[in-house]
Design a protein that fits this description.
single chain, 260 residues, OB fold (Dihydrolipoamide Acetyltransferase, E2P), 8-stranded mixed sheet
């Protein structure tokens, strides 16, 4: 079994070593547009509870998306600040986009239309508290009761890995490096911006210190209460825009759902 874990870690290292470099020329432009833009709708699509609009700003045409709302070609829209997703593939549309801006809301002809935040279903508004490692406004997992239904006793540390508390303590050293952790899923949202989002805990750390809960993105489905082995690259101080800020997160992880 230990050999299997080492092989997974080796795969992660190879993927990181040979991954294509980011297009730094397009990054500043994408970041500038993330602050919001406005113009006329020249195309619109609906899929999987979301509305996509192609907006002609006069200088360029940009795609924006938020939760489903009423809009038609020719409408004037104002797109709020959002998160650019470059080289984005929509599974529901089976279509590739150079860049799509996921936004918390879009005004149509001067009136709020896409008012529901483009956040995971059931996610609270992005206002209020700010627990380290979670988006601003996200309630602590203790006060929200999300973890109360999950028994965190008896979780064994991953071979060669760390506890969640240890990950927070060593985050400066492990940034960009393969990390293994075992825990239980205490919150799960499927297919948000093309990924599954997991909150996992292992009983280490505390909600007051903000070092007991780790966010993971993956293509692997899971369910609240599952024990999972997570292997992936740790990223620190990640700001996706639209209120998604994480002190530490494991992205595009290999997730193994372990049998009880």
């Amino acid at each position: 079994m230990k050999l299997k874990y080492l092989l997974f870690l080796g795969c992660i290292l190879l993927a990181a070593r040979f991954a294509p470099a980011a297009d730094t020329n397009s990054a500043p432009a994408a970041a500038a547009e993330a602050g919001g833009f406005a113009g006329k709708v020249v195309d619109t699509l609906n899929a999987a509870g979301y509305t996509y609009v192609l907006v002609d700003t006069g200088a360029k045409k940009l795609w924006a998306v938020t939760t489903t709302f009423q809009v038609k070609i020719g409408d004037t829209v104002k797109v709020g600040a959002g998160m650019p997703m470059e080289k984005y593939h929509s599974k529901s549309l089976n279509r590739d986009f150079d860049v799509v801006y996921f936004t918390a809301g879009i005004e149509v002809n001067g009136a709020a239309a896409g008012g529901a935040p483009a956040l995971p279903p059931g996610h609270p508004p992005l206002t209020g508290t700010n627990q380290p490692g979670l988006p601003p406004g996200h309630p602590s997992l203790t006060s929200s009761g999300l973890a109360a239904k999950v028994d965190l006793s008896g979780i064994k540390k991953a071979p060669g890995g760390k506890t969640i508390q240890e990950i927070y303590a060593a985050k400066a050293k492990i940034a960009g490096k393969p990390t293994a952790v075992r825990g239980k899923v205490v919150k799960y949202n499927a297919q948000i911006m093309g990924k599954n989002w997991l909150h996992i805990q292992d009983g280490s750390g505390s909600a007051d210190a903000g070092n007991n809960d780790l966010t993971v993105t993956t293509s692997t489905p899971a369910a609240v209460g599952d024990t999972v082995l997570v292997i992936g690259l740790a990223s620190t101080n990640r700001d996706f825009g639209a209120g998604y800020k994480y002190g530490i997160i494991i992205e595009d992880a290999k997730v193994i759902v372990e049998q009880p």
